[in-house]
Amino acid sequence: xxxxxxxxxxxxxxxxxxxxxxxxxxxxxxxxxxxxxxxxxxxxxxxxxxxxxxxxxxxxxxxxxxxxxxxxxxxxxxxxxxxxxxxxxxxxxxxxxxxxxxxxxxxxxxxxxxxxxxxxxxxxxxxxxxxxxxxxxxxxxxxxxxxxxxxxxxxxxxxxxxxxxxxxxxxxxxxxxxxxxxxxxxxxxxxxxxxxxxxxxxxxxxxxxxxxxxxxxxxxxxxxxxxxxxxxxxxxxxxxxxxxxxxxxxxxxxxxxxxxxxxxxxxxxxxxxxxxxxxxxxxxxxxxxxxxxxxxxxxxxxxxxxxxxxxxxxxxxxxxxxxxxxxxxxxxxxxxxxxxxxxxxxxxxxxxxxxxxxxxxxxxxxxxxxxxxxxxxxxxxxxxxxxxxxxxxxxxxxxxxxxxxx
Length: 406
Ligand SMILES: C[S@@+](CC[C@H](N)C(=O)[O-])C[C@H]1O[C@@H](n2cnc3c(N)ncnc32)[C@H](O)[C@@H]1O
Hints:
By secondary structure, this protein is α/β, with parallel strands linked by helices. It has 2 domains: 11-213 and 373-403, Vaccinia Virus protein VP39 (Rossmann fold), CATH 3.40.50.150; 222-371, DNA Methylase, subunit A, domain 2 (DNA Methylase, Chain A, domain 2). 29% of the residues lie in helices and 14% in strands. It contains 12 helices and 11 strands. It has helices spanning 21-28, 41-51, 68-77, 101-108, 120-135, 156-166, 222-226, 251-257, 275-283, 343-349, 362-371, 375-389, and strands at 11-15, 32-38, 57-60, 86-89, 139-145, 150-151, 154-155, 169-177, 188-196, 240-242, 264-266. The strands form 3 sheets. A 7-stranded mixed β-sheet has the order 3-2-1-4-5-9-8, with helices on both faces. Strand 2 (32-38), helix 2 and strand 3 (57-60) form a beta-alpha-beta unit. The longest helix has 16 residues, at 120-135. The protein is globular, with a radius of gyration of 21 Å. It binds S-adenosylmethionine (SAM). S-adenosylmethionine (SAM) is lined by residues 16-22, 38-40, 43, 62-64, 90, 92, 124, 371-373.
């Protein structure tokens, strides 16, 4: 692990930390999450379960209420250092994708206590920036849904970047597809990386496609991700199952097994389904959608629900793993078993290793997983930040899974 000016590894504050996927990737890259904050009890239990031995301070706080000053005070009382090198976070901002330019501008710029800033959907983004302003880390990294990218031809991300600039940060943003970072899932998200202006640096996202058209990082498919897991039936509730190592396991699966309890797999549980669904799942071929079903197997209007069901393909990355899995898992039907995916399979598709613990009910686990930044994406970005901003001359261009240090 590398040393910072203060003698420890680079210190991260994770806001809206959720399960800690963002943090995990930074930790893999040699950073250290000092403080992680969320207000959801299952997120807190998950963070404590995975990070307590790393000395991360996990705080259950409502960030819409806790001010940066109050956090500083709280941490100082506990003798916890507040000199964060990086602040990461994915504040929920559902409002943006539907807003128009004038509205966005007024939402993202200070416009007084009575102004549209009071829109609760944008308050959390403002709060994230207030933390950045207050603690002045060298680097601020924010993740958000790509829906904010463009609305009626307006580039909302550029407007958001302006507000980072106003806070004293030089920003680069990019729409990132997790599948290009080695995650077996097509997932598009926006990442903003702001560098404090006095450092006089501009972050460059890693190129994912080489000049010869090949992907820089090894890509992974659904088969790579989950085919080594034991077969289960729908409704399986065995929270601990035996895991038998297969020959020919993919590099990706080997990465996922690193530090796992030998011979055991946790959370390989899935939803139960009624006969009608099971008949539909059985009929579907890999890649099929709801609209491809014959009429007698349909129970919804297919003009509205044409892609409600989606069967995974072994040979491709999966579709986006979202928190909607906590409601139903029809978007991720197993490619060869008559069921939807298990919690552990969803975690694998998000690049959470098998050693990672998720708290709460099955729905809670799906939600935590679906909300997370895939740790492998966070790792690749964090590695590049370390190389470019913290000038660490260690192996930072992991091009094979073996080079990813868990
Ligand atoms: C998109 S998730 C973050 C996922 C996380 N970055 C990860 O990689 O696992 C957003 C998180 O914000 C939390 N959250 C929403 N509003 C909050 C608030 N007012 N205070 C604290 N946490 C909040 C939610 O509980 C949720 O865990």
